[in-house]
Amino acid sequence: MxxxxxxxxxxAGVSTRTLRYYDEIGILKPARINSxxxxxxxxxxxxxxxxxxxxRELDISLEKIKKIVTDRSFNRASxxxxxxxxxxxxxxxxELLIANVDKTIASTEGRMKMSNKEMFEGFKxxxxxxxxxxYGEEIRKKYGHDKVAQSNAKVMSMSEEQYDEVTALAENxxxxxxxxxxxxxxxxxxxxxxxxxxxxxxxxxxxEYRKEAHxxxxxxxxxxxRFKAYYDKEQQGTAEFLRDAIYVYxxxxx
Length: 254
Hints:
By secondary structure, this protein is an all-alpha fold. The chain has helices spanning 5-12, 16-24, 43-57, 62-69, 76-108, 116-143, 145-156, 160-183, 189-202, 211-223, 225-232, 238-250; strands at 3-4, 32-33, 39-41.
């Protein structure tokens, strides 16, 4: 079956403007243009649009979606299985947050008592969700699903004191790294202190610490534009400086 822009938009629940934009950026081209100049979409385009909308539900950018679906190795069945896995994770996360809100409401209304640990779970869950949204795909590719799941479980088991500690530690890293950067010496005392603090911070999340993994993460801070932008937001070159400091600290160079 074939569809015009208007019919496909109605079928998929998107606007005709969205489909035209997808055509413009090359993420979803029509199968053909008919004699009247209308875009015509076939079953292959319908299937691809479903994939695109699945990825959008997972908050993946159009730029990244385009790279995924235009890759020659793209496999629809594998992509669907991956979608299902991530949606189940999202479902679990939402169910936990809803349960936490319900408990908070009941506690506020005096129908039950809520422990500090239970109240704190919502904040830890928010941290995990934000990290998954921003970096989930990359860290799963690098470290594997099981490692990420173990790390998330470790975060959820944190006490309130541990959460406060790791939050303060992150602030200390930022401050120390900024001071170390001014010295221009990644092997200097301040830079090595920043690397040590970074290791301590990682150990709150990682189930085990390995120098190779630490050095690999440091390189990802440089290679991934989002990590790089985070570290370079105050001073250009900070991501590279931190990487070099960690290379010295671990004794591993890439």
